[in-house]
Amino acid sequence: MAIARNPTTVLDCPDAVALATFYGALLDWKVNLHEDDPDGDWTDIADDATGQRYCFQQVENYTPPVWPEQDIPQQMHIDVDVDDLDEGEAAVLLLGATKHAYQPGESFRVFLDPAGHPFCLCQG
To answer: Which residue has the higher pLDDT, 56 or 37?
Structure first.
């Protein structure tokens, strides 16, 4: 039985709406502006037919990755939905994840995978 579902790719960027608009046009997916985020620093695009989704998170002082070098690596993380945050947390800790010391929200929790990449469990 899966611990989580609906992985979401989240891209850090200097302007969430602009990048969502770009990818929305590229893929012909709907851009979803969130009413609970009037500053527009979080938005997503979605394909209603398949349920696929990409999210865009605006960050201050964004520095784009330099590829293929790794001096400034690619910047993204994965969000996955869980029914219960406490149960999800227990399960990912058993798999080898580490709970990050900084927890910026109540509806999600931030963890580090065994290689140190951040990912979030989201109540959903």
So the answer is: 56
